[in-house]
Amino acid sequence: MKINEIPVILHSMDSYSKFWNPWYHLFNLHCKNHGPIIFLSEEKEPDFVNDVTHIKTGEGEWGERLLIALEQIESEFVFYMQEDFWCIKDFELTDNILEMFKEYKMDQLHIKENINLIKTIKIKDNLLKFAQDSEYTQNHQFGLWKKSKLKDNVLPNENPWENEINGSIRLNKNPHNIYLLDYHWYISVCRRGQLMERGEKIIKKYDISF
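The structure assignment produced for this chain is given below.
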């Protein structure tokens, strides 16, 4: 398998549809060599529906909707992310990322900026491992997952915030292999459904309709 054969899951809900076009534009602009996009919404179709695989999950809690979609995705590995993080810098997905994932027997590999909210152990270069007792071992920023590991740690009644907190507690009870490639290439742009000032600056910089 090649890295660009692994699907990228974008998981959203219809009330956040105003973020879809900017996310799509910036992801395609900056994320090089990515695989097919699987776009999850409740019922609403994105403007770019002909360029992605669109799965309608129906209404329900975040966890229930994600599990419905994962049942329909056959790939052993998936990338997962949400629409409230926009790319601002180029990053290329290369096959050595997948090779490293397999070499270290990873369950998750997040590709994001290292922050002081998590505890890590340096492995080499910009590769770090989440400490066993770190917070946010379960998180929804851009990452490569074994699909089975993602599916096993999502409960139908959980919202995304509960899943990150309670999911991390569940993960930390047993040895885990969760890693981080420290690279700053996207930022959060909304809070509680509202575009933040940093998001407004991105809209202006890239002249994106919002």
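Interim note for the steering committee: Residues 132 and 172 are 6 Å apart (CA to CA). Helices lie at 20-30, 62-70, 95-103, 147-152, 160-172, 197-206.
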